[in-house]
Design brief:
The chain is α+β, with helices and mostly antiparallel strands and 127 residues long. The protein is 32% helix and 18% strand. A hairpin with a 2-residue loop joins strand 1 and strand 2. The longest helix has 16 residues.
């Protein structure tokens, strides 16, 4: 699997449906933040995990606060299920209504986990 650019445009976010383990292992081998989307029936799940980037990759407190707040807003706006998981280094959002929205969110999460909170701001429900 090719290493993703930072920040990664949504259209390059990998669809890890039925191949999550391989995608996660590839991110770990590349010492990169894992990010991917998966189809679950009619819904999509966004997964992001900084553990794959190794012990030298530190997720700052401000990043955790911003991602938790964004995920909370997504749940309240019903763009994500209430079973969302927010941090401190692993983030997962279930129940995203479309592949495009899942890609947009995954790209924003990936940028945030590399310290760029800018992409979280334009997300409709992330504001």
């Amino acid at each position: 699997m090719q290493q993703l650019p930072i920040p990664c445009p949504g259209h390059l976010i990998p669809d890890a449906t039925d191949r999550f383990d391989a995608a996660y292992r590839a991110a770990k081998a590349q010492r990169a933040v894992f990010v991917g989307i998966e189809r679950e029936g009619e819904w999509w799940t966004v997964k992001a995990d900084a553990l794959t980037a190794g012990p030298g990759h530190v997720v700052q407190d401000a990043v955790n606060v911003a991602l938790r707040a964004a995920i909370g807003r997504l749940v309240r706006a019903r763009e994500a299920g209430s079973d969302a998981f927010a941090g401190p280094v692993h983030f997962m959002v279930h129940g995203v209504p479309s592949e495009g929205r899942a890609r947009e969110l995954a790209a924003a999460f990936q940028a945030a986990l590399y310290g760029d909170l800018g992409p979280l701001k334009p997300c409709r429900a992330c504001r």
